[in-house]
Amino acid sequence: MRFEIIDHTADIGIIAYGKDEKEVFATAAYAMFSLVAELEGVDNALCREIEVTADDKEALLVAWLNELLYLFDVEHVIFNGFEVINLEEHRLRANAYGEKFDPLRHVLKTQVKAATYHMLKVEKGDGFRAQIIFDV
């Protein structure tokens, strides 16, 4: 998965790349969790089916990432695999794979509070790219 981390005043961001929008949404989720924890050694022991809706693709990206953060905060699941099954203008359906957080095995890195709309972009060029800033 291809992404880069970008610095932002008091926050952190990513730029995710993909051959299509589905891959960009999956890469953005992986990049976000790579900020949260060391992902090596995280097993795909469980799967959560996720469906979100929003007004447009940018808002859909924020809703997707914030739903994943919600599951991390509430169910204490670290995700490291993402399969976007269906992506439309206003709806996303995907599977997220991971396991329950285990403080003896998993190393947390950054407390990501939320995906934001600040400097948010989902663009088509040579492939697709998404830029998103996270509140930390």
Describe, in plain words, how this protein is organized in 3D.
The protein is of the alpha+beta class and 136 residues long. The chain has a single domain, classed as Archease domain (Archease, Possible Chaperone, Chain: A, domain 1). Helix content is 26%, strand content 44%. It is built from two helices and eight strands. The strands form two sheets. Strands 1, 2, 6, 7 and 8 form a five-stranded antiparallel β-sheet that branches. Helix 1 (21-36) runs parallel beside helix 2. The chain is globular, with a radius of gyration of 14 Å. The protein starts with a strand and ends with a strand.
What are the main properties of this structure?
single chain; about 140 residues; Archease, Possible Chaperone, Chain: A, domain 1; three-stranded antiparallel sheet
Our Rg estimate from Cα atoms comes to 14 Å
Structural class: alpha+beta
CATH C-level class is Alpha Beta
In CATH, the architecture is: 3-Layer(bab) Sandwich
The tally of helices reads 2
What is the H level of CATH, i.e. the homologous superfamily?
Archease domain
In N-to-C order, the SSE pattern is: EEHEHEEEEE
CATH topology: Archease, Possible Chaperone, Chain: A, domain 1
Mean of pLDDT: 95
Shape type? globular
Summarize the structure.
This protein is an alpha+beta fold and 136 residues long.
Question: What is this structure's SSE topology?
Answer:
Elements (H helix, E strand, L loop, with lengths): L1 E7 L2 E8 L2 H16 L9 E8 L3 H19 L1 E11 L3 E10 L13 E2 L5 E5 L1 E9 L1
Antiparallel strand pairs: 1-2, 2-8, 3-5, 4-5, 6-8, 7-8
